[in-house]
């Protein structure tokens, strides 16, 4: 059973073949952004931080609405917003801690 042939391996990409019809078919091709790696990472980083900040603001606004006018928001929605904001913040903190640790390890290599 020869699934791949030598002509399938081109450069650093290999065309994957479905062997079972239940497997997910390849979706539409995504456009790769025309950014330099540094510019792309910076934009991605600040976009992620902005999303975390937006989740924090959303949860604070919903909590304030719950306190001032309890009938205007659903308690479950407030709880979900608080949980999302807490999870996003803890994940961001973990990623930042690991990035700082990796940076320190790189600096300590001699």
Structure description:
The chain is mainly alpha-helical and 110 residues long. 60% of the residues lie in helices and 4% in strands. The chain is built from two helices and two strands; from the N terminus they run ββαα. The chain has helices spanning 37-68, 75-108, and strands at residues 9-10, 13-14. Strands 1-2 form a two-stranded antiparallel sheet. Helix 1 (37-68) packs antiparallel against helix 2 (75-108). The radius of gyration is 23 Å and the shape is flat.
The largest sheet is: 2 strands, antiparallel
**Terminal CA distance:** 50 Å
Kindly state the number of beta strands: 2
Helix content: 55-70%
Major sheet: arrangement of strands: 1-2
Q: How large, in whole angstroms, is the Cα Rg?
A: 23 Å
- Unreliable residue stretches: none
Q: DSSP strand (E) fraction?
A: under 5%
Supply the helix-strand structural class: mainly alpha
Reading the helices and strands in chain order gives EEHH
**Tertiary shape:** flat
- Kindly state the mean pLDDT as a whole number? 79
The total of helices stands at 2
């Amino acid at each position: 059973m020869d699934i791949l042939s030598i002509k399938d391996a081109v450069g650093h990409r290999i065309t994957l073949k479905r062997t079972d019809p239940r497997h997910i078919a390849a979706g539409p091709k995504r456009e790769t952004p025309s950014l330099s790696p540094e510019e792309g990472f910076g934009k991605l980083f600040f976009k992620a931080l902005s999303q975390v900040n937006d989740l924090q603001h959303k949860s604070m606004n919903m909590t304030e609405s719950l306190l001032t006018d309890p009938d205007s928001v659903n308690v479950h929605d407030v709880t979900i917003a608080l949980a999302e904001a807490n999870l996003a913040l803890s994940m961001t903190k973990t990623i930042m801690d690991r990035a700082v640790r990796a940076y320190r390890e790189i600096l300590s290599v001699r």
